Amino acid sequence: MTTQLLMPERRLSLDIPTGRGLRKVVEVSSKNIHPALVFAGDTLLPAAAHYQEVADNLIRGDWWNPRRVFVTSPAAGDGKTCTAFNLAWALSSRNQSVLLLELNFARPQFRTVLGDLRIWHGIECALRGSTKPADCVFSMEACGLNVCAVRDATPFSHLKQPLLRLHAFLDWCSERHDWLILDCPSVLSREWNHWHRENASPALMVVREQQSTLVDTRKASKILGENLKGLLLNDSVANITAQ
Q1: CA 33 to CA 45: how far, in whole Å?
Q2: Can you tell me the distance from the alpha carbon of 91 to that of 87, in angstroms, rounded to the nearest whole number?
Q3: Sheet of strand 98-102, all strands in order from the earlier edge strand to the far edge
Q4: Residue 98 falls within a domain, yes or no?
Q5: What percent of the chain is modeled with pLDDT above 90?
Q6: CA atoms of 209 and 232, how far apart (whole Å)
């Protein structure tokens, strides 16, 4: 009879604010985290090197200014949320202070891809003024990445006043971090295409090579206009180019 040794389950520690200056360390099993997040596995996926190459291009590129990356896609299903996570991780692995923010208020994904994580205060709480900005930022200790997620899904019709405070909130974030990576709604979502044109600058558009249609990609590019500074292909060798 042979004895099989079981490897201990890998767990990631997240330092999460609970309010009034208090914090709680939450352990999350890596097996519950979305497999496309390259930093969550026992070994880094081959794609990690491609994201690190993208991060190096961003750091070297004086053309990417301010140091904010509005990550979007022509339509849903292009993998932009996991791409935003991986890009933020890659930048943090290059000794950059990075804050990853979720702006997809109506269909938030951050908590889901992190294994149905519980958070006490979401970014929408800070924008409404019901909590301090610092209380909606948690950190992933294993990779040194800071994250600001949506706690409760909010329809676009309820965001008029909170979105007026977004610029001031992002300025607060930029004062404390080298880079902001913002996971935005898809460009062709009807409610958000005007917002993208007015606010999402500089923008990085994620296109899934085998799914995104050329028509949708062209429409999204036209809406973004001069805001579009880079294109990243999913299901392909990751790359980024200046406009």
Answers
A1: 14
A2: 6
A3: 22-29, 11-19, 138-140, 145-148, 98-102, 179-183, 68-72, 203-208, 228-234
A4: yes
A5: 60
A6: 10
Instruction: State the residue range of the domain holding 122.
Output: 11-32+41-234
| Two structure tokens written together for 30 | 């890596």
Is 80 exceeded by the pLDDT of residue 63? no
Q: What is the pLDDT of residues 2-29, one digit of tens each?
A: 444 444 567 889 999 998 889 999 999 9
Residue 15: both structure tokens together: 């330092």
CATH number at residue 170: 3.40.50.300
> How many folded domains does the chain comprise?
1
pLDDT at position 3 is 47
The secondary structure of 73-120 as a DSSP string is -SSTTS-HHHHHHHHHHHHHTTT--EEEEE---SS--HHHHTTS---S
Q: Which stretches of 135-208 are DSSP H helices?
A: 160-164, 166-174, 193-199
* pTM to 2 decimal places: 0.90
- Confirm whether 132 is domain-assigned: yes
**pLDDT given for residue 241 in this prediction:** 46
Alpha carbon distance 192, 137 (integer Å):
24
Helix, strand or coil, per DSSP, at residue 34: coil
Which DSSP helix (H) or strand (E) runs through 229?
A: strand 228-234
Write out the H or E segment, with its range, that includes residue 70. Answer: strand 68-72
Q: Which residues contact 70 (CB under 8 A, 6 or more apart)?
A: 182, 184, 196, 199, 200, 201, 202, 203, 204, 227
pLDDT at 237 over 50: no
Give domain status of residue 239, yes or no.
no
